[in-house]
């Protein structure tokens, strides 16, 4: 019975790690490609700030992705910075591109927060040690 539990736990860790990597790669790609594309179209200071935060979010996504394989004390700080940049990018986009839509910005921010928490949760599952 113990062997089945260990195999299930390993499969669970593998799936959690795989999903984390896939989601982080998608976010990194979308944030970096979208941010680079928006640089030339940023006409106002707020659009430029949002674009820079978006590019930072893409870079932090890659950093968080790499942190999956490193067990250092600074990993949580990187995860928090990435989460904040994802929320800011999502929320600010509804305010600075086109007519300001505060309700939509709040919905985008909450959705980005939940996505970030979900990915961090998956990463934490993948870091758990096998139980005896």
**Could you tell me the number of beta strands?**
0
What class, by secondary structure content? Answer: mainly alpha
Rg from C-alpha positions? Answer: 17 Å
Helix content: over 70%
Number of domains: 1
| Overall pLDDT metric | 89
Alpha carbon gap, first and last residue? 12 Å
Account of the 3D structure:
The structure is a single chain. The chain has helices at residues 2-39, 45-67, 75-96, 102-127. Helix 1 (2-39) packs antiparallel against helix 2. It has one domain. It is mainly alpha-helical. The radius of gyration is 17 Å and the shape is elongated. Helices cover 83% and strands 0% of the residues. The mean pLDDT is 89. It is built from four helices and no strands.
Keyword list:
132 residues; mainly alpha; 4 helices
Topology:
Elements lengths: L1 H38 L5 H23 L7 H22 L5 H26 L5
Helix pairs in contact: 1-2, 1-4, 2-3, 3-4
Question: Would you kindly provide a brief summary of this structure?
Answer:
It is built from four helices and no strands. The chain has 132 residues and is an all-alpha fold.
């Amino acid at each position: 019975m113990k062997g089945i539990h260990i195999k299930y736990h390993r499969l669970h860790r593998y799936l959690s790690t795989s999903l984390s990597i896939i989601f982080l790669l998608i976010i990194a790609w979308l944030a970096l490609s979208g941010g680079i594309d928006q640089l030339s179209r940023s006409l106002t200071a707020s659009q430029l700030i949002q674009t820079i935060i978006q590019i930072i979010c893409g870079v932090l996504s890659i950093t968080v992705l790499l942190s999956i394989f490193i067990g250092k004390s600074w990993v949580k700080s990187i995860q928090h910075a990435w989460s904040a940049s994802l929320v800011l990018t999502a929320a600010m986009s509804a305010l600075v591109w086109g007519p300001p839509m505060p309700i939509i910005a709040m919905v985008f921010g909450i959705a980005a927060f939940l996505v970030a928490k979900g990915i961090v949760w998956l990463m934490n599952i993948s870091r758990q040690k096998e139980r005896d």
